[in-house]
Amino acid sequence: MSFAGRIAVITGASSGIGWALARALAAQGCKVGLVARRREQLAALAAEIEKSGGIAAYAVGDVSERQQALDSIHEVAGRLGPVDLLVANAGVGAPTTVEPLNVGDVEKMFRVNVLGVVYSLEAVLPQMLERRSGHLAAVSSLAAYKGLPGESGYTASKAAVNVFMDGLRVQLRSKGVAVTTICPGFVKTPMTEVNEFKMPFLMSAEQAAERIVAALKRKRKVYNFPWQLAFMMKLSRWAPDWLLDRMMHTYNEKPPFPKTPL
Ligand SMILES: NC(=O)c1ccc[n+]([C@@H]2O[C@H](COP(=O)([O-])OP(=O)(O)OC[C@H]3O[C@@H](n4cnc5c(N)ncnc54)[C@H](OP(=O)(O)O)[C@@H]3O)[C@@H](O)[C@H]2O)c1
Q1: How far is the C-alpha of 88 from the C-alpha of 86, rounded, in Å?
Q2: Active-site annotation holder among 58, 145, 154, 223
Q3: Could you confirm whether 145 is annotated as catalytic?
Q4: 63 Cβ inside 6 Å of ligand 1
Q5: From 3.90.1150.10, 3.30.420.40, 3.40.50.720, 3.30.450.40, which CATH number describes the 7-253 domain?
Q6: Can you give the residue ranges of every domain in the chain?
Q7: Could you report the average pLDDT of every consecutive run of 10 residues in the chain (262 residues)?
Q8: What is the pTM of this model?
Q9: Is residue 256 exposed (0-12), middle (13-18) or buried (19+ Cβ within 10 Å)?
């Protein structure tokens, strides 16, 4: 599939993977719609894309608020045209503590990471069904494959995304709408910059974006990368609790919270 002239909307485009993905899709000839909460970052990215000959439109919106998600995506679609590809990438992460249980952070992760995906897809699905054509993608995580101590909330939110997308993919199979779940390992972005441990197989946002674009082109069902970490995560499902407890013990003594609270 060629991306030339296609219209792609990316949520969470103001930073990290979403930023790099928007640039990579624009470089392939896509007209890109950029959505996130921070206006200045979106404006800077749109200007950069336009300067290099691409076409971009942006709209500010919080995807965890249903109406804002719908309005912002409709706004960029109104300027660019009917959406061929929607990448629900916006996400947040924070450790889960038990003394006390940080319920507010868990709620926020579910609102953005899970409901944010659902609302974003809702914005484009009717038109895709009408046209019997389109591609829905969500950026989940390899963290979806195992509930990790100290990351219960984040891993559960990503597991929910994977399962939601799995069901949707089969349901939309005969309706002309493709569904892709993207599960990256560690990517160097503001989200991971607070991590003090050595992140295995860490890659740049540009490298991740390049791989994601290739997976989207091939309409992969589920794209897990890098394969080495995907293999380790799937293997960890059989790891005994005592081993995971020991491996994550230091992490849980001083878990890395984001610089800006969720
Ligand atoms: N980095 C990794 O190692 C890694 C690994 C696996 C999966 N992921 C996933 O990849 C996605 C992108 O993460 P990243 O690493 O690129 O992190 P990032 O640099 O922190 O970017 C997160 C993006 O999401 C946006 N966002 C957050 N909350 C939002 C909300 N309520 N409404 C709209 N936009 C919102 C942010 O923009 P605003 O703040 O401007 O709204 C930002 O553009 C996330 O879903 C993350 O879970 C990351």
Answers
A1: 6
A2: 154
A3: no
A4: yes
A5: 3.40.50.720
A6: 7-253
A7: 92 98 98 98 98 98 98 98 98 97 98 99 98 98 97 98 98 98 98 94 98 98 98 95 93 91 92
A8: 0.98
A9: middle
